[in-house]
Amino acid sequence: MKNPIVAFLGNPNVGKTSLFNRITKLHQHVGNYPGITVEKREGSVKANGKTYRVIDLPGTYTLFPTSMDEEIVYNVLADRNNPAHPDLVVVVAEPNNIKRSIVLYQQARELGVPAIFVVNMIDEVNAKGIDVDYQKLEAYLHTKVYTTDARNGKGIKQLIHAFDERPGYFPSQFAIEEPYKTALDEAKKAFPLHTEYQTWQFIAQENISFLTKDQQETLTDIRERYQLSPNVLQQTEAIKRNAKIEEDLKTVILQKDNHHLHRTNKIDKVLLHPVWGYIIFFFLLFLVFQLVFILSEPIMDWIDENFSALIDYAAGVLPEGPLSDLFTQGVLAGIGGIIIFVPQIAILFLLISLMEETGYMSRVVFLMDRWLRPYGLNGKSVIPLMSGVGCAVPAIMAARNIENTKERLVTMLVTPFMTCAARLPIYVVLISLVIPNETFLGFGLQGLVLNLLYILGVVAALVSAAALNKIIKNQHKSFLIFELPSYKSPDWRNVGTNMWEKTSSFLFQAGKIILAMAVILWVLGNFGPNDKFSNAEQYVLQANPALSEGELDEEVASFRLEHSFLGYMGMGIEPFVKPLGYDWKMGIGLISSFAAREVFVGTMATVYSLGEDIDPDDDEERETLLGRMRSEINRNTGEPSYNLASGISLLLFYAFAMQCMSTIAIMKRETGSWKWTLIQTVMMTGIAYIVAFIAYQLLK
Amino acid sequence: MQKSFSLDLLKVGEQATIRQLDSSELPSKFYEMGLLPGTVIEVRHKGPFHGPIGLHILSSNLLIAIRKSEAAHIFVDK
């Protein structure tokens, strides 16, 4: 027998996810809903002698979707053929929004899905000043009502025990009257197998994705003939349902003074203050980034050291040969390049999910909307943009809760301009090469330039957003409405799972691509088309017979790279990068770092024949690399390869260019189209090329 | 009774009853989140430079934020 599916439905901020985590414990995974790219959180629990599949639907206020997340909810509940269509829906409410949750409950029941009702956060019911007559509520809802507190596990057992309930009859709570009745009757003829409310939903929504073209046309035709506007139909339903619930529940839910709100209001007086609110926000922002870098540093060093040791060990154990090289220098080094970013991403998402859990993130949206709106963005764009300073991959995923399609797209398109962690090592190396270590107005010049590059990322994101805002057509009117939830202490279980989900999706999804690229690069760099590659030693000895053994090895490695496929590719693109002030060696760096920016430093180390294990964080090793790079002469110009002009040009190139396979992959996944992914890549790299070109030509 | 005026004119701390929403300008989500005719609201926060407005819905004790431009399409009276 098929395992029964239980789906959790509810408003945002009701502790639905806490409940889900409590019930499924760690038996959960994140997948995708078929055909679309919204994450599906699914878990399982064994109880009552069977295994239930439990799905945590995205938080929603209604079954009339306005965002991608909400569309999923509707499709899962309304489409019986959806593989995630539940056998039982658990509608989760919290004491303050029971009435609003009942609307959702009624809609689900009238679509024909069995449902039970849960009041979560029951421990706060007194502080929130709510008094519920559960017997009356059960009678009104024609179902069982459970009370739980996901934080301490109260009521969870009883809830799981109820997973076999299948409440049957539910009388419609929403009477459809003229002027819509005639139109509805006509539509019902086209959908004989559907309930009245299902048919109403079909009329009251545009673009229901699971209907056939013919069915959609029938509906459009009816809407046109009766001059029905979906928006007005939806509003009619909302007003009628709410008025009826308000009337019907007068004696069921009593409301007194809310102590929680007093506390929240006091905190908001400071955190939403026109002056203090911003000061505190920017201080927190500063603190978050400091923490991301400071806390992750020792862990990253540790990973780096151990991975190098592991690679050395593997190289020692494995029989020598190209396969061993591929495994150690290609695969293992590739994996190391992914894992090194895990601490930063994990810490960033720890802090972001803390901000979300406590309720502060909504305040950030409140504070920032005014300043992002002129650029065609939305207050909710703050979260992706801020996360972009860590890594664009999870940041782009964070754009999902933006309702407006256009604002979501623009946010995703500009997020990679934010200075991500992978740009940092390149910036550090290049700045110390070309920016003199002097002070300017009492500040270190090098640090100042680094700060400028961060600001440049923000400016680039905003300016390109403004430009895209002019170009992309808007399908819907932009609007912003969101709840400011009461402040609460974070549920650590949620923080933990969220952190793990985001980090692991980076590790596995993006990791696959970085790994593949690392292997491809390794192959290109380790094979050559002619005997200059295979007999490199002879050629080097012929030219310089007097080399010592150590020098010889380095020279051979460098000569090999020059005559490998990668080397020829570097020389192939030299004509294109010459106007930017780069030579073929830097060209190799650009090609290889297309997979991921952080590859640049390592490649440069190989190109300048220093052996492959250069750690840019290790002062001594960095100095060796820097010294070597400083003395490098560009054979086209006869000047140092890394002078002020080419260095600035390179910095600007990396600030703008889409040098990241993982971002490309995630954009494809999130937008579902190659079109926007390619537009983004061309836009970013195009801007990078032009800006770097202008900078070099002006400075040289 | 006073004539209704748009919600964005309310000052922080003022209470009013929603009379009507301009349904051609606002999506149904506004109704669904609780801004319904007859609802009593209190303006709790206002963002600087015509920023968002934070509304306390008295009947449900929830705090909702909307843009000023949207508040201009919601009509209230005191």
Low-confidence stretches of chain B: none
Ends of chain B: how far apart?
A: 8 Å
User: Uncertain segments of chain A of ≥5 residues (pLDDT<50)?
Assistant: none
What distance separates the N and C termini of chain A? Answer: 74 Å
User: How many extended strands of chain A?
Assistant: 12
Share in helix of chain A: 55-70%
**How big a fraction of the residues of chain B is strand?**
35-45%
What does the average pLDDT of chain B come to?
89
Strand-and-helix sequence of chain B, N→C?
Answer: EEHEEEHE
Number of domains of chain B: 1
Subcellular location (chain A): Cell inner membrane; Cell membrane
Transmembrane segments (chain A): 275-295, 331-355, 375-397, 409-435, 447-468, 506-525, 644-666, 678-699
Domain FeoB-type G (chain A): 3-169
Keywords (chain A): Cell membrane, GTP-binding, Ion transport, Iron, Iron transport, Magnesium, Membrane, Metal-binding, Nucleotide-binding, Transmembrane, Transmembrane helix, Transport
What do these coordinates show?
- The complex is a heterodimer of chains A (700) and B (78).
- Helix content of chain A is 59%, strand content 8%.
- With 700 residues, chain A is of the alpha/beta class.
- A 7-stranded mixed β-sheet of chain A has the order 2-3-4-1-5-6-8, with helices on both faces.
- In chain A, strand 3 (39-47) and strand 4 (50-56) form a beta hairpin.
- The longest helix of chain A has 42 residues, at 276-317.
- Chain A is elongated.
- Chain B has 78 residues and is mostly beta strands.
- Chain B has one domain (5-77): Ferrous iron transport protein A (FeoA) (SH3 type barrels), CATH 2.30.30.90.
- Chain B contains 2 helices and 6 strands; from the N terminus they run ββαβββαβ.
- Chain B is globular.
- Chains A and B meet through helix 3, helix 9, helix 10, helix 14 and strand 12 of A and helix 1, strand 3 and strand 5 of B.
- Strand 12 of chain A pairs antiparallel with strand 5 (62-66) of chain B, so a sheet runs across the interface.
